[in-house]
């Protein structure tokens, strides 16, 4: 742990401060980016997913998670658990095999790589001889069968990865045992599938790509039976009774073959479920359900990876963007909601907002509203239950809110290891969009082919990119929520436990204030519905503020005690009274020379987005195979849109600090807004105030006059500009914080009223902390004279990208904590700066400097944690605090007995086998004693 020290004698307080900070990346939330392999261990009840980036992730019961990363920069193509063991094998696309184990250490399991292996063929042999295409982990737990592109089957002993050359099944050996009709060498190329006989482990079925299937005896080393399939093979499955083999083929057919003595001349059953004249993609997998129903899975919409396995009660399907678990025991086969691996990016994430320590009442109301949205899910519990979650219960209830491109805001339970979905708010219903209400994959007419229904929630289609949510602010005490979007719309919503139909009152705010010579060249604003809007229980909109021009909202804050909302764009900022539904004031910050601010970020992609939306609707109506192609086009358009929006965030620039010209683009862009009750006119009278910081290094302060409570609904709120500060280097203002007389940041609105914070000190001098991209500067109030500052390193190009106040508690003393400023730079480094004396405390590298989107997506919590996107679908969670750490703490125990043979399983430790047998003997003795105590 990195600690900070002071020279000289250390006081008790200094010793406590040494235990405040510790940096850890703790857990990854969301769906793995670009999954490429899936496996399941029935004995461990663990799920394993491999990715194209070389990561391997294991999941069990909620909270049981493990992650490993291969040193090789190669994709994981296959994952296989060794039966009844805690080992698994991964195959990478560089043809290397890797052995992993779950090893216990200090009462917790950890995923470790313990070996690697690459097949080496005969000298001069072509690469296809050893290119692994199929892997079978034998039920003995001691062997791996490796089928190759060249048709060979190698047998390798594990865990030591020793090739058993005398037991290998060579191409020549197979050809000599195949009838003359199948000797054609190409019929024996490319081992597509390997399956073990479930009732006889000495027999395996080898499926070749051109259709030939051979049953091989591992002991006698000879072929027992040949199955003369002629169509290209996609998969094989041996039924649980060992009496039939199922094969699926590229023409959409499946066949059932009788297993017995002698070769099979014809199949028992061959069928193409939807007829040869129907268009269809090949079945990838099939099996018999326990009710004797045959389940056939097609790659109808999904491109590989499309991997699945059968759980005793469910079908688990891994597709490229989500994991779908289908309840096979309930009529209608509903989907079981996943407690993890949720596709956070079901619509692209555009912003996020974290709220700590949610009051129980609000938590219960949001949960209740969310439960009404989940009636289509199965009531069955999550079927994957392996391992033990040993993490302590979360000390508080935390929410993570994510804004999305389709105009939704999703509420996630971020209290623990699993990021659970709680509630989804949609804002699209307030507006008229180009969406077609009949665009529904489940609305096909009777008899229409294919008779499939859509499952899962991933859908990159966006009705209108202007709906995208850019800023969110939730008051956890009052239940008021405000969200702002790409087209300058600001919605104010209130939590309601009952459905309601009401008209949303709209106010248009002209941020240019009638200035001439400016013409907006961007997108138009959204058309609002004039008729009443029916809102389900949850957050319901009652007021809309529409900025003109309809530029992206770049700053937003809410003060629920004063009933005020402040908002800013690249043209200016304004204050809105949502109780009286009136605009208090508007300030234009647009520089006359800033013509770029008059071009919307959507203008350059507007035409392609419109074209794609029209194309997508045609695809939905016709339901043709080109859907995937257009989804990719849409995602490319979304990527362009994100790049345009990133310009508004000003991507990191690495250069020396230098004075910026007032002619620089976007100088009027509002970066931060802040409410405070502090001293502006004199040191004797505090007053409500609003502070705004711009991209040109300017800070504006407004004194607010609020009517008395009894007249609040009638008398207007007024505002008067009191201060204006221009930073010397015109560096963008990233944040503003007011410190009270004790040097402590002011509490949140209503926090004191709910007895969750002490009242701020109003007797000592208040201080203004202005956080710019280049330095932290403290001013005294009300005179606004500079007191102290801390410059960020200029030579390496460091610039502040994110800043937030957090509380750090000692891990040794429950009574000691202090506030600090958490800062993320464009280099991806985290700093903690002490308050009020702005001294650098600790410094940790966190995000790669090249990961611009990761840096831009970072959000801090109030207790020293944070989240940032490591991919479009995953949040990385980190902690700077020694006290507040959320991370998996799991234990996976070794199975003592094989479920199939009731024998002791092999263990990593050579002595464990004898221990298992001894435990079994002791258990039998105990049963005998209980039956006959004498």
Automatic annotation (TrEMBL):
Xref: InterPro entries: Lethal2_giant, LLGL2, WD40/YVTN_repeat-like_dom_sf, WD40_repeat_dom_sf, WD40_rpt
Compartment(s) where it occurs, according to its Swiss-Prot or TrEMBL record: Cytoplasm
Any one GO molecular function term: GTPase activator activity
Alphabetical UniProt keywords: Cell cycle, Cytoplasm, Exocytosis, Phosphoprotein, Repeat, WD repeat
WD repeats: 69-110, 395-413
SUPFAM superfamilies: WD40 repeat-like
GO biological process: cortical actin cytoskeleton organization; establishment of spindle orientation; exocytosis; Golgi to plasma membrane transport; regulation of establishment or maintenance of cell polarity; regulation of Notch signaling pathway
Top-level taxonomic group: Eukaryota
One Gene Ontology term, aspect cellular component: plasma membrane
Listed Pfam families: LLGL, WD40
Family of this protein: Belongs to the WD repeat L(2)GL family.
Protein name, entry field: LLGL scribble cell polarity complex component 2
Source organism (scientific name): Takifugu rubripes
């Amino acid at each position: 742990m990195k600690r900070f020290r002071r020279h000289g004698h250390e006081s008790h307080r200094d010793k406590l401060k040494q235990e405040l900070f510790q940096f850890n990346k703790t857990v990854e939330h969301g769906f793995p980016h670009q999954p490429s392999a899936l496996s399941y261990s029935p004995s461990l009840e663990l799920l394993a997913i491999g990715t194209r980036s070389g990561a391997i992730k294991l999941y069990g019961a909620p909270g049981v998670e493990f992650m490993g990363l291969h040193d090789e920069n190669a994709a994981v193509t296959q994952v296989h658990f060794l039966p009844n063991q805690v080992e698994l094998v991964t195959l990478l696309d560089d043809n290397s095999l890797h052995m992993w184990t779950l090893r216990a250490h200090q009462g917790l399991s950890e995923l470790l790589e313990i070996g690697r292996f690459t097949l080496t063929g005969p000298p001069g042999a072509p690469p296809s001889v050893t290119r692994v295409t199929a892997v079978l982990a034998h039920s003995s737990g001691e062997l791996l069968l490796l089928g190759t592109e060249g048709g060979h089957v190698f047998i390798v002993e594990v865990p030591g990865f020793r090739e058993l050359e005398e037991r290998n099944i060579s191409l020549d050996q197979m050809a000599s045992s195949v009838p003359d009709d199948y000797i054609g060498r190409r019929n024996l190329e490319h081992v597509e599938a390997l399956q073990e006989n479930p009732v006889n482990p000495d027999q395996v079925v080898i499926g070749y790509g051109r259709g030939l299937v051979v049953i091989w005896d591992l002991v006698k080393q000879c072929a027992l039976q040949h199955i003369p399939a002629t169509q290209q093979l996609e998969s094989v499955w041996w039924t649980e009774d060992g009496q039939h083999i199922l094969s699926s083929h590229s023409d959409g057919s499946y066949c059932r073959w009788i297993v017995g003595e002698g070769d099979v001349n014809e199949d028992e059953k061959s069928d193409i479920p939807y007829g040869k004249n129907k268009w269809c993609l090949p079945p990838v997998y099939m099996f018999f359900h326990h009710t004797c129903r045959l389940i056939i899975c097609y790659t109808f919409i999904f491109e590989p990876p499309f991997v699945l396995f059968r759980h005793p009660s469910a079908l688990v399907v891994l597709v490229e963007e989500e994991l779908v678990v289908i309840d096979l025991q309930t009529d209608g086969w509903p989907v079981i909601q996943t407690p993890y691996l949720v596709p956070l990016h079901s619509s692209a994430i555009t912003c996020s907002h974290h709220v700590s320590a949610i009051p129980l009442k609000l938590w219960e109301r949001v949960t209740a509203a969310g439960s009404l949205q989940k009636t289509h899910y199965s009531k069955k519990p999550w079927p994957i239950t392996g391992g033990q979650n040993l993490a302590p219960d979360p000390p508080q209830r935390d929410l993570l809110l994510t804004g999305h491109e389709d105009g939704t805001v999703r509420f996630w339970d971020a209290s623990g290891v699993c990021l659970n979905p709680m509630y989804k708010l949609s804002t699209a219903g307030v507006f008229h969009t180009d969406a077609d209400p009949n665009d529904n994959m489940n609305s096909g007419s009777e008899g229409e082919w294919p008779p499939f229904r859509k499952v899962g929630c991933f859908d990159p289609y966006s009705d209108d990119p202007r709906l995208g949510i850019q800023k969110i602010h939730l008051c956890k005490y009052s239940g008021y929520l405000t969200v702002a979007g790409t087209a300058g719309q600001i919605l104010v919503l209130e939590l309601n436990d009952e459905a309601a139909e009401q008209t949303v009152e709209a106010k248009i705010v002209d941020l240019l204030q009638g200035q001439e010579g400016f013409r907006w060249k961007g997108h138009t604003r959204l058309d609002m519905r004039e008729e009443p809007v029916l809102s389900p229980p949850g957050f319901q909109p009652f007021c809309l503020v529409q900025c003109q021009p309809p530029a992206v909202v770049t700053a937003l804050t809410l003060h629920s005690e004063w009933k005020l909302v402040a908002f800013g764009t690249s043209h200016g900022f304004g204050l809105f009274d949502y109780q009286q539904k009136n605009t208090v004031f508007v300030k234009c910050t647009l520089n006359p020379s800033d013509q770029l601010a008059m071009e919307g970020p959507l203008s350059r992609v507007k035409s392609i987005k419109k074209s794609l939306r029209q194309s997508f609707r045609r695809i939905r109506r016709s339901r043709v195979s080109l859907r995937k192609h257009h989804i990719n086009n849409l995602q490319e358009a979304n990527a362009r849109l994100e790049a345009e929006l990133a310009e508004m965030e000003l991507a990191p620039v690495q250069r020396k600090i230098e004075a910026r010209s007032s002619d620089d683009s976007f100088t009027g862009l509002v970066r931060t807004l802040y409410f405070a009750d502090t001293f502006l006119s004199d040191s004797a009278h505090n007053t409500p105030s609003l502070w705004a910081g711009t991209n040109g290094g300017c800070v504006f302060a407004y004194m607010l006059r609020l009517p008395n409570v009894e007249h609040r609904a009638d008398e207007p709120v007024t505002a008067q500009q009191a201060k204006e500060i221009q930073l010397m280097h015109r560096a963008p203002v990233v944040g503003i914080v007011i410190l009270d007389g004790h040097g402590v940041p002011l509490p949140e609105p209503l926090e004191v009223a709910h007895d969750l914070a002490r009242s701020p000190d109003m007797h000592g001098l208040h201080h203004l902390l202005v956080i710019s991209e280049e330095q932290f500067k403290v001013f005294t109030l009300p005179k606004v004279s500079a007191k102290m500052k801390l410059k960020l390193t200029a030579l390496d190009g460091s610039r502040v990208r994110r800043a937030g106040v957090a509380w750090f508690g000692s891990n040794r003393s429950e009574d000691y904590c202090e506030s600090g400023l958490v800062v993320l730079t464009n280099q991806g480094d985290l700093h903690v700066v002490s308050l009020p004396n702005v001294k650098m405390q600790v410094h940790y590298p966190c995000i790669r400097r090249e990961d611009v989107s990761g840096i831009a997506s970072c959000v801090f919590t109030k207790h020293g944690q944070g989240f940032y996107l490591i991919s479009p679908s995953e949040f990385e969670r980190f902690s700077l605090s020694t006290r507040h750490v959320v991370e998996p703490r799991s234990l996976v125990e070794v199975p003592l007995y094989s479920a199939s043979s009731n024998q002791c399983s092999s263990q990593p430790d050579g002595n464990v086998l004898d221990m298992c047998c001894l435990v079994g003997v002791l258990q039998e003795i105990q049963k005998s004693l209980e039956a006959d105590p004498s």
